[in-house]
């Protein structure tokens, strides 16, 4: 397989990529994997004279605007930490506010605003950095004293429920 933006090839035709996020031509990608994109869209993209980064996976962290489960607080520091963290791991993020509510066994129905910080990445990058993401989510849970912290992988919601006694007392 030949990668765009790569350095010298060897006698076997292998081309050493010059960075971690490989840019694979869509013609080659189409031959290797079944695309979630319709064939007509793939045909149009394949005829484009440029290349595309293929980021098939996504991860989002929901940063709550409360502490102690139901006390409204300024969590802007944690929002910025989350944005910086995901950008360092996955080269970028987008974020937006959402209003919602959840049922707490301790506090009942809790209305809560959250900021969702989302990044897209390759499968390799997701697998490589997922342990760090889990540690970061545990950090947020401890810092904000939450029963759990929500995050998504490829649109599937996960509720991280690290036992607080382990976070607080080791």
Structure write-up:
- The longest helix is centred in the C-terminal third of the chain and has 22 residues, at 123-144.
- This protein has 5 helices and 9 strands; from the N terminus they run ββααβββαββαββα.
- The chain has 170 residues and is an alpha+beta fold.
- It is elongated and about 55 Å long.
Q: What descriptive keywords fit this protein?
A:
single chain; 170 residues; alpha+beta; 5-stranded antiparallel β-sheet; two-stranded antiparallel ribbon; 5 helices; 9 strands; 35% helix; disordered N terminus
Q: Could you give a short description of this structure?
A:
The chain has helices at residues 26-32, 39-47, 76-90, 123-144, 164-169, and strands at residues 6-9, 15-17, 57-64, 66-67, 71-72, 94-104, 108-121, 149-153, 156-160. The chain is of the alpha+beta class and 170 residues long. It has a 5-stranded antiparallel beta sheet. It has a two-stranded antiparallel ribbon with strand order 1-2.
